Amino acid sequence: MPRPRKPRNCICPHRAGYAAVFKPAGVPLKDIQVIQLAQDELESLHLCDGEGMTQEQAGVCMGISRGTVQRVLASARNKVAKALVGQKALAISGST
């Protein structure tokens, strides 16, 4: 049985139930694949790439370890790259 998930402190301005979808222009959403970006993935991108924090500083802000930030950040960057290169929709979920 896996260990329970540790709560994460997410203070990014694009959080809390805000369901944003970014997609290529001129293509209906129903015609393209949607990639889900979780709230903690967005928060790690915001802190590390947007605010210029180190992974250790971001981990302190989010209440998680640096290693977890590294894993979540790698996942977020992978999803954003796939959405941009593959011309797919990127949906930001409101829950962790």
UniProtKB/TrEMBL annotation:
Species in which this protein is naturally found: Geoanaerobacter pelophilus
PANTHER family assigned: PTHR37478, UPF0251 PROTEIN TK0562
Protein name: DUF134 domain-containing protein
InterPro entries: RNA_pol_sigma_r3/r4-like, UPF0251, WH-like_DNA-bd_sf
Matches recorded under Pfam families: DUF134
Family under the similarity heading: Belongs to the UPF0251 family.
